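Why does residue order matter? Because the sequence determines the fold. Keep that principle in mind as you read this record.
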Amino acid sequence: MGLAAYELVLGKAGFGPVAGIDEAGRGASAGPLVVAAVVLDPASIRRMPGLADSKLLSAQAREDVYAEVLRWAVDWHVVVISAGQIDAIGLHVCNVAGMRRAFAGLRCQPGYVLTDGFPVRGLGAPALAVWKGDRVTASVAAASVVAKVSRDRMMRDLHERYPQYGFDRHKGYNTDEHERALAEHGPCPAHRYSFVNVHRVAAAGAAAVPAGPEELVAGVEAMDLLAPVADAAPIADAVSVADAAPVPSLAGASGANERRMSS
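Structure:
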């Protein structure tokens, strides 16, 4: 049964269709966190022979699978959480809230939910956390591709605004290139000031690049994100928000926090 094993077994047990939820950008120190929920049934899985974990695919293969997922999935939804929102209430809280929002944004009602790595309470449907779910379940793999491709496109847009950081290459992750650019230029509004490496540079006196009016977005209110996930644990490697330099809330390429993204 391969990658479709979970979906086939759950479907035969009367729990179809199955939604998979995954994120992209959790470990990056710049750019948004993007969470995707994708609903698949056995028929849609059969139409996507190239489907695999986004991290195992080349950039072009991800784009091809992304188009297939958007064409054949029963349903899908993407949530974008800005660096400013992550700084305000914490990465883990935003991650869990983003998963709940992505699931709530689906137009259909899945019979079961698979998440990658850790359980998410309060989804309103039976759910199972699957270790390395993006490698062993079709729906989570599809969600990983949608989240990854969506975020990569946003990071390429951010590169056009801030070419000195090389966002089009490292996508905001902590590579040597990114660390050198951060030390030389200081953080920009797309950086996550609650992350230790960014906070360290900001505290040393490097000025942030001023944000233009088009980059200032209303965003999701912090309490809107926090309310349903008050029991979530804080992220361990973030400095206190009170100590972090204030930055505008940047929500990615188009400034929308929740969207059904175009292909």
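The chain has eleven helices and six strands.
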